[in-house]
Design a protein that fits this description.
The complex is a heterodimer of chains A (about 110) and B (about 140).
Chain A (H helix, E strand, L loop, with lengths): L2 H25 L6 H25 L4 H4 L5 H13 L6 H18 L2
Chain B lengths: L1 H9 L1 H25 L18 H23 L2 H8 L2 H13 L5 H27 L1
Classes of the chains: A mainly alpha (about 110), B mainly alpha (about 140).
């Protein structure tokens, strides 16, 4: 794996998580409100960009190689919650994040 | 018969299973389509846009949409803190499908990595789902 493909994997992942959050907020709003339109548009855009980056990555890597990286999305969500909501990062979260990271490293070297 | 099928389709737990199967199917189609499509020169190819030339990519997109619809239905009835941990079964299904349908060779090291990821995700899934609800 080259540094460029590693970067693309992470960008696709972060955009995917952001898309989920924006789409979730859009779904909670009135369909005609300006806020729904804004959140939905941002969600759809980030989802699309993430989709095409992933499609490009699939041209170069095995699916069984790329998919485990999705596990990192829960780590990204915890970090976002810690940064934005000041949620506490518990030992349980650290332990899980360590396992996921170790797994991703093993896969990326395989 | 039709009544029974309708009842099954409206069952949120059945929809949860469907959405996981749809995600797996979409990934297999997208991988197939990405490989079939003509490749552009590497400098511009990182977007994978050329994949749209393959019908398999479009089947993949249909399954992505289907998985979204199922998932949204699931979340109307099952809390995220329960649905999300269960949905992580995809981390087993996708590698199995890669091996079975795409003939990918998965080394012992890669299976170990996948097992670590799955274990880690299962450990944090519930608290993370609670955080995601607030984000």
């Amino acid at each position: 794996m080259t540094p460029v493909s590693a970067l693309l994997i992470f960008v696709a992942l972060i955009l995917f998580v952001l898309a989920q959050l924006f789409l979730k907020h859009a779904m909670e709003d009135d369909l005609r409100s300006a806020r729904f339109k804004k959140n939905f548009a941002i969600g759809l855009l980030t989802m699309t960009v993430s989709f095409f980056i992933t499609l490009g990555l699939l041209q170069h890597f095995d699916l069984s190689y790329l998919y485990p990286f999705q596990g990192l999305s829960v780590v990204i969500i915890s970090l976002l919650a810690a940064a934005i909501l000041r949620e506490k990062l518990t030992t349980r979260l650290f332990f899980g994040a360590a396992l996921i990271s170790a797994g991703v490293v093993l896969v990326s070297l395989s | 018969m039709i009544q029974k099928a309708k009842k099954l389709l409206l069952n949120p737990w059945f929809q949860l299973v469907l959405s996981v199967l749809f995600v797996t199917t979409s990934e297999v189609f997208l991988k197939r389509g990405a490989v079939e499509a003509p490749r552009l020169p590497d400098e511009v190819n990182w977007t994978g846009v050329s994949g749209l030339a393959s019908p398999d990519v479009w089947y993949g997109i249909l399954f992505v949409i289907a998985s979204f619809i199922s998932w949204l239905y699931v979340l109307r009835f099952i809390p995220l803190t329960i649905a999300f941990p269960l949905s992580n079964f995809v981390h087993v299904l996708v590698p199995l499908a890669s091996w079975f349908f795409l003939n990918e060779l998965i080394s012992v090291q890669r299976w170990c990595g996948i097992a670590f990821v799955l274990l880690g995700v299962l450990i944090v899934a519930k608290p993370v789902a609670r955080m995601e609800e607030k984000l």
